[in-house]
User: Fold this.
Amino acid sequence: MPLAARARDVIEAKLSPEGTRRATLFEQLTVRRVRWETLVRMNRWLSAIGKVATTIYCCVIAALVIGVDIRPTVQDLLNSGRRIEHVAVLAILLPTLIFLLARSMIGWLRWKVQRELWRRDVERLGGTS
Assistant:
C-alpha cells in the first residue's frame, strides 16, 4: 500500500466519529445503565441547578459591587469573629472558588448525560455506535 494511502487511512481513522460514539468505561458503569426518562430528567435538573448556581454567584458579586459589607460574615464563619488580615480578598475569592468548582462539576455531569442521550439517539435512528 502506498504511503499516501496509508497516511489517508490513518487520518480518516483518527477523525472518524466512531471513537467519540463509543462509551468510555466510566460511562458504561454509570449513565449507560440509566433509563432514558431518568437521563432526560437528570439533564433538566442539572441545567436548572447550573442556572441557580450562576444566579447566586451573580447576586454575591452584585452585592459586593453595590457595597454590601460581607466582611463580618466571612470573619464569623472562618475565624469565630476574630480579625482576619485579608478578609476582603477572601470575601471575593471564596464565593468565586466555590462557584467555579460547583459549575465545573455540574457542567461535567451534564456533558456525560448529554453524551449518553446523543449516543442513544444515534442508536435509535439507525446509526452505529
About this structure: The radius of gyration is 23 Å. The chain has six helices and no strands.
